[in-house]
Design brief:
This protein has about 230 residues and is mainly β. The chain has one domain. It contains 1 helix and 15 strands. Strands 8-7-6-5-4-3-2-1-15-14-13-12-11-10-9 form a 15-stranded mixed β-sheet. Strand 10 and strand 11 form a beta hairpin. The protein is globular and about 45 Å long. The N terminus is likely disordered.
Length: about 230
C-alpha cells in the first residue's frame, strides 16, 4: 500500500506535527461486546484531539478482540478526522486472525479512495466525499463519537461509508430522547440517538460530553457497552 496508508502509530504522530499544538485525550475506555446475548470480546479505544474550530484534528484508535462465527479476530482501526464537522481525512484498519484484511480510506479531490486488500487480492473504489460523511466500520463502537457533531438538526440524512464493505449509503439520524442507563453499576443520563436506513438500525447512547456509552445493532444482535463510566 502507498505511504499515505498510514499505520495507527504514524497517524498518532500526525496531530502534533501538523497542528503545532498539544494533543489531549477526549475519551478512552473499554467496551464489552455481546452478539446474540453472548459475550464475544472487548474494544479498548482512545480518542485524542488537538486544535480547535476549523483547525481541530481528532485521532481515534482501538484494539478490538472478538470471537466471531469463523474464529477469533483482532482488529486495529485508526481514524483521522479534521475540521469543525470532523470530516474523514484518513482511515485504516488491519484485521488478523480468522480473517486477514487491510482496508484504507483516503481523502481525495471531492472523493474518497477506498482500498481493500485480502488474501484474494486488492480492490479499489471511489466514494463521494459528501458533506457530513460518517465512517462506521463493522463491529467498531467508538466511531459513533463522530455522529453527534453532524446532527445539526433532527432528523437528518447522513452519508455513511462502510469501509470493509467498500460501499456508501445513506441513513436517517434522529434523537430519541434522554434516558437513564446503567454503566458499570452507575446510572447515567444519556442522549439516545438512532440511525436508520440501508445499513439497518443502530441505537447509540452518549453522555453530555458526546462520549459513547452504549451501541446496539439489533439486526445483528450486536451490543457494545462500556465496562465503566467515563
Amino acid at each position: 500500500m502507498r505511504i499515505l496508508l498510514l499505520s495507527a502509530f504514524a497517524l498518532l504522530l500526525v496531530i502534533p506535527a501538523t497542528a503545532g499544538a498539544q494533543s489531549v485525550t477526549v475519551d478512552e475506555g473499554v467496551f464489552r461486546i455481546t452478539i446474540g446475548g453472548e459475550v464475544v470480546g472487548t474494544e479498548s479505544f482512545s480518542i485524542r484531539r488537538t486544535g480547535s474550530g476549523d483547525d481541530v484534528q481528532v485521532i481515534a484508535t482501538a484494539e478490538i478482540q472478538i470471537d466471531l462465527a469463523d474464529g477469533p479476530t483482532d482488529m486495529r482501526p485508526a481514524l483521522h478526522a479534521m475540521g469543525r464537522d470532523m470530516a474523514v481525512y484518513a482511515y485504516q484498519i488491519k484485521v488478523s486472525g480468522a480473517t486477514q484484511e487491510e482496508v484504507s480510506v483516503e481523502e481525495g479531490d471531492r472523493r474518497y479512495i477506498n482500498r481493500v486488500r485480502t488474501e484474494r487480492g486488492e480492490r479499489e473504489r471511489e466514494l463521494r466525499a459528501a458533506p457530513g460523511t460518517l465512517l462506521l466500520d463493522m463491529n467498531v463502537a467508538h466511531q459513533f463519537y463522530f455522529l453527534a457533531p453532524r446532527l445539526t438538526s433532527s432528523p437528518m440524512t447522513l452519508p455513511i461509508i462502510a469501509p470493509r464493505e467498500g460501499r456508501q449509503y445513506e441513513m436517517r439520524a434522529s434523537e430519541v430522547g434522554m434516558e437513564s442507563i446503567q454503566i458499570g453499576g452507575t446510572s447515567i443520563q444519556a442522549r439516545h440517538l438512532r440511525l436508520e436506513g440501508d445499513g439497518g438500525t443502530r441505537d447509540i447512547w452518549i453522555d453530555e460530553e458526546g462520549r459513547v456509552l452504549r451501541v446496539e445493532h439489533p439486526d445483528r444482535g450486536y451490543v457494545a457497552v462500556r465496562e465503566s463510566a467515563p
